[in-house]
Fold each of these.
Amino acid sequence: MLWKDKYELGVPLIDTQHKELFQRVESFMQVLRSSASWEDKVQRVNETLEFMKGYVVEHFRDEEAYQASIGYPNWEEHKKIHTEMVNYVVQVSQEYEKSGFDQQLIQQFAGKLLAWLINHVASEDQRIATYAIEKGVAGNEH
Amino acid sequence: MNTDLYAPFLEATRSVFQLMLDLSDIEDRPSDTFPDSDETLDIAIGVIGDLTGEVIYRFPVTTSVNIVNIMSGMEVDSVDEFVTSAIFEIANIISGNVLTTLSGNDLACDILPPVQRAGDDSKSYEIKMACCLSTSAGDVCLDIRLNPSKG
């Protein structure tokens, strides 16, 4: 299980979405790293990629709305990080299709995604929770 | 200048390892006994701005594999595209954290995307230092090669 309780922000919607993301990334990696042939993996890899493209955008939008609702001062910087990640996912996805579902490309994507997600949720997102607690606005989400 | 850079790099590595891998047993170690580059995953991150040059992160193969095993919860036994990419991202995150620290000291720098290669010994650097860390996941060494920008 990739998810750790220390990643929780204390915001139910965001925490649920983070858990879902971790779960999806985990099952994505398990499929990718299994001993099955690449031909057998392609369909599930494609499905996960499609899910990620949609879900990541939806989650980032909700998280940015939460930041706005509590007046988080570093929202602009945080939004920039989100935008860069969305662009990266779209770019990899396009290159992947163009390459005819190249396995090497997706293995690279999974490695980066794993490290990025852990760092982002454990570090960047925790700053939002710290701010909410310090300002006494934790639990003010709508 | 040397002392000023040594600390932020060590501190950023220490903090990223603690945060992402739950490793708290992190200690400095001498850099002179570090393995040859054929046993390590060497990642170069270019630096531009008030400081120009590169930082080479040297992850022994065992350290790279151990780190990815901790992060993924899976058994990975060799360095492939997946492992390399995850370690690239860790080097990227450490470097980004260092730049944030440096910006607090009025040094504005940016980093370039990670590239897998050893350091370029043909160039000369005013700031050249190596520092290593020892952890239960293995060792990691940083080779810092930077020049203050003129002007």
Amino acid sequence: MSEPQDHQPLSMTALTIRLDDELFAVEAGRVREILDLVPITEVPNAPDFVGGLINVRGRVVPLADLRVMFGMNRPEPDEDTRIVVMEVDMDGEPTIAGILADKVHDVTDIEAASIEEAPKVGMRWRPEFIKGIGKRNGGFIIIPNMERIFETPGARNAPVAASEERSAS
Amino acid sequence: MNISDPTETFRQEARELLDQLEAGLLDLEQDPANADLINSTFRALHTIKGSGAMFGFTAVAEFVHEFETAFDQVRKGQTKANSALIEVALDAKDHIHRLIEAPEDRISGGDEILAHLRRIIAGGPVDTETPVKPKAKAKTTKAADAPPPPPAATAIWRLEFYLPADALIYGTNPALLLEELAEIGPTRVTALTDRIPALDVLDPETPHVGWRVDIEAVDPTAAIDDVFLFLRDTMELTLTRLDERTETDAQAEPDGEPDALSEASSAPEPAPTAATLAAQSPTPKPRQGAGADTADRAAASSLRVPAERLDELMDRVGELVIAQARLSQIAGLSSDTALKTIAEELERLSSGLRDTTMGIRMVPIGTLFSRFRRLIHDLSGELGKPIEFITAGEDTELDKTMIERLADPLVHLIRNSVDHGLESAEKRAAAGKPPKGVVRLSAVYSGAEVAISVTDDGAGLDTARIRAKAEENGLIAPDAKLTEQELHHLIFAPGFSTAKEVTSLSGRGVGMDVVKRTIDGLRGTIDVTSKPGEGSTMTLRLPLTLAIIDGMLVRVGNGRYTIPLAAVEECVELPEGIEAHAKGRNFLDIRGALVPYLRLREVFGTAAEPEPHQKVVIVSSGEGRVGLVVDQIIGNNQTVIKQLSKLHSGIKSFSGATILGDGTVALILDTAHLVAAGQSYVDRNITGRAA
């Protein structure tokens, strides 16, 4: 599963999901299953991005919230909330993770021609987290760069020292 | 990994054979005249050569060939096994290992090893071991080692053979064998029908026909060896040189003595090789038979399974245990007695299955111990310290994964004992000790744990030097009061080394802190005891398995957490009002002993209101004891340990996660880390108050 180079137009079969008020597209080939909301176990002192764990058929899987990385609102879960279980590359190792989605739409083909490079300015998201922006039905679809998002060191290193300080004070 | 890949199968087998070979060589060093050891060494070499050639590892086959020849000499008493030979054979074993692991790389060094071997075979053993041995004997030895002599007159050789009873079952084709023999030289083949039984008892799958093949060649011994490579150990085979001799002479020979044969033969060169074959064919019969018997029995009673399949099985059983827990929980709430009965039955079955599966993964630790003999051997040579290595408790069984992960820490501890612990022979003599140092490695069950100790009878830990070093490194304050135990434990501090000078062994950038970390990761502990002048003991205490533990389920705020039951010492109620008059002094008085405690609510940043009656779970790790304040103790449960993903590997308070009966995930507390956090909290508090 080699990823195309950054900033290069790509055509893809994508699962479209809604996060807050934006449409996102994740590579359909990496999606393992889509679950209704399950009980989430909070991991104390973990970063908000991966603050929880869920049980996926006997496996303990981290639950990631992309909305944190994109600095979006985080509405409370409702009846549309789903968990997209997918394979993401972490340091080159395939890892199973759940992604929280405010709604799952459909699987669609996004033509390479309709995908544009993410603009360097005029965007509220960090450009390195975005692989491209597709257009459909007059709207935009954001294609996140999952590898980059899950690579971010800040996402993984919990503020352990801080928690111990807290216990000491 | 594709397990059906024949090359990989060969590698796997060869690795085992090499281990066997190494063990045999090391034993042989202690007991150079032991015929069994010599034979098994020879056999291991022979098999590596044979299957190496078959699987296309020609470099291996070519390299091993000379060693096989050398050990064949030893086998026949023409050369003696001595330490020089064993040393070069150990080098060779390492070289073979490299060749097998990376056949495509151009691995050098083989020629030097072979040259070294030739020197030893040519002169070494004769000079050092038995100076009185006649020179002529040594010459014969050399001649046998050298390539066959230049073409001499051909002779007629008579080969008679019967295939082993199972040859056809294993796919041997007699016609092809005869064809191969025909390639050696002009042949005349006669079938030997004397053993064909009556038709009613004839088993068509057994080869009853033998063959007599007269071959015209200079010396077909090696070629015949090659033809029967995989059969020779179990087949009947005689080879005689007919020459001018009459047929009756030759036929009278089969059980004749090899020496008589070599004397009878007129040409001196081929004599030893003819003897090789003659000596091998009649003698291996009973010995090989016995060997094959034990091998067969071993094969029937044990099974080799790829490790991944066991891991997979363990995963499945883990899932079953979780599903069973869920069922039990639902059944417990139900009034359906049939459901309750089934749930109980399933609980019994799954816990049995769990125990059996864990049993399958248990491996005797001896497999690991044998690896260290080589290490000691090498260290002894490198440092010039004579060492006696004693092992005990090889039968103690531990989880396979555990054994794999223990290898590195143990290598380190043993190195440490030899390098830093044992004194030089002179120093030992001066201290009135025997010059040979003793390193003892032992394993023993203690409860649900295994204790593995590395003991040396060296000088013991020098607490004064440890102290000086720790002060120098800023690990402790110059006036800090430390018990002897605490001083000993300082050797596990990162970047700590007591070696005054950096030897080739120490100073590799890996220290005892790495050992400590690995053992912590295995949920184990390290104890150190040491007496000046008498030596030190490092004891590792480890749980028997990594996969499933018994846990105590507790609630903190809205979260549920599992504490490994093995670490739990007792549970007490947090005395009411303790906060009120003891602000910032988080100690409990447990039967006169002060135990610091941590509020998990604070550690985890829980927002929910605390329970009015909070409980304290007192956990221990090695020396330290710490109370963990929780809101509620829910009960005990079987805990299938699941590793946390990399995304959470930075969070130290948890060693893993598990799935509870209701399907939710609970985190497993890392007690060692929490105890350390609790202790450091105490230290800070004390120093804080002192300041």
Amino acid sequence: MRVGLFVPCYIDQLYPTVGRASLELLQKSGCEVIFLEDILCCGQPMANSGYEHYTTNKNYASPFLEALPNVDYVVAPSASCIYHLTHHLLKEELEQDKLQKFKEITEFLHDVKTNFVVQSYFPHRVALHKSCHGLRGLQLAKASELGGTAFSKIENLLNKVEGLHLVIPAQSDECCGFGGSFSVFENAVSVRMGEDKLKNVLHEKVEYLTATDMSCFMHLEGVFKENESVVKIVHITEILNSSL
Amino acid sequence: MKTLHANLSKEFLSHRKDADWHNDTLWFLRKKRDYAKDQLREWEQLRQAASEIKRHTLSRLPHYLEKFEQQASQNGMKVKWAWDGQEVNVLVTKILRENNVTSVVKSKSMLTEECGLNHHLEKQGFEVVDTDLGERIVQLRQEQPSHIVVPAVHLRKEEVGKTFHQFLNTEVGNSDPSYLAEEARNSLRRDFIKAEAAVTGVNFGIATNGSVVVCTNEGNADLGVHSKKVIIHCMGIEKILPGLKELSVFTRLLARSAVGQPITIYTSHYKNPRQYTKEYIIIVNNLRTEIYKDEGFREALKCIRCGACMNTCPVYRRSGGHSYHHTVPGPIGSVLAPFYNKEKNKDLPFASTLCGSCNHVCPVKIDLAGLLYKWRQKLTKETSQAVEKTLGFKASTELLKNKTVYKMAGKCARLKISSFVLKSSYNPWNKGRKFTDLPKETFREWYKRSNHEE
């Protein structure tokens, strides 16, 4: 299976280890991975701020459209980018079956690579933050406000990690307060949301906090640092890719 | 570039204890709602049914409104139509004058709040008393409700104690909730006896039998309607439902979504006037046809005003209802507000992280986050924007689509001097957060290097 790896702008620039863990994980799952070097960004930062009309031009959509025929799937370690691609940028460009080819990485490992055995060792107490776009946008798990049977692709994968003690803090599926430019223009509310998140995580006495989206962590890491918290931040791919 | 909402939120949050209390109280309601929802296995089917009923009704709105008018008139109700808020106010004034009424008891109606009815009537010399306890508290303080279901949720009991002492002559410093409620009840009883007319809002209008349905937990609407000879129900055009069968879906959803109760305590159907009473229904448009005409936003008219989107919204809970500077706050309010004033309310669709929780709690499944996203695109084009904002996003657009510029910018950011600037207090990001340490190389650089070495 040929998979195109899309490493979003902010992960490329700020969290290269997440890109690396994603690449290695996909290889471990038996995929031929092609790094989609020409794709920089999905356009979400501008679009969510009201400037979608700057990004719908060929410069944003076309690299994805060009990459698609050469691979079976386009995978990214960022639910919010995949959500933006499939619900906004490419929604009018592609049929539903083609849009299905864009997958967030845990969704891909869980739903497509069903035979993939997680062989990972991470002997730590880890809290989970359920990032909104993965949770509500891509239904990686059932959000607490919805009715119906509970499920969680994220927890299914994490529960297979040896040594890992998973903790679900209070309000774990409440937004962290990032929200793109919201975090700058609405600084006070954003920071308070991050502080409340920290309070609930600290209550669980964990060593790490994990999530499917580094965008939440861009903001949370800053809030944690400001509050001199000892809780470390780790992306889910880094846990799934860690070994003895 | 701080918006009005951002400034008001900051002010609200600066009273930390009160803000935490506000957040916790509304989260408590959200949890009660979750519990109530879990008691019904068919919860998601109910939401789906409600959403489809509303969609159907909206698709034939003129038909159902005409049917409703005809039925209600046949029942002896006097049906009037009002194009906007001003017309509502004039109509109510006229009715009161015709019937020689000088004092009115009102039971909670966000619609009359939207029209500024209290203010108008008071200016015309009428005495108006809001009879919902929360509404009464904010009315005494000359404030607007900060929430559509719990209008005084922004106030702690101590503040209510002070307000009651000032206006109702209660004991100084006594803020015991039972005592305050008892005193409010005594005072309201006198108001109920004194008033000559009752004004109510309407939760649902039933097309097949022409009745209006009013849901309250305190029974205050009933006290007014049952004891007065002049009764006025103000109903937004979107409140219409085809029949009683459809209503049954909504009575199961409304209170559960709002506060986690199985049903509202009083769900009253008013169909016929009694002998010697005059009962009016004013059907109000007030810009609803503008929303109706805009197919992209029409579904906002499905809203049944349960407030669930406010209780779940992490931004609303932390910033308080008044930060939205519009009658209806929170996610649904931010969708409606720009219809009333694009320029003044252009900040509200941005007062959200688009987390989508509001979509999931909405009993009629309005795509609130989607509509906020849609507004952002429209408002950016149709209202004035700060030049630096537009330029900033224009630059980001160029930066993130051009590989050479992108790589260069990344390299520049990694320079010592840039890192100093990024971490300085000049960077707005660093208010309440610390900028992350930039890695030595990007993923691209690592990929190139490691593959090259191989």
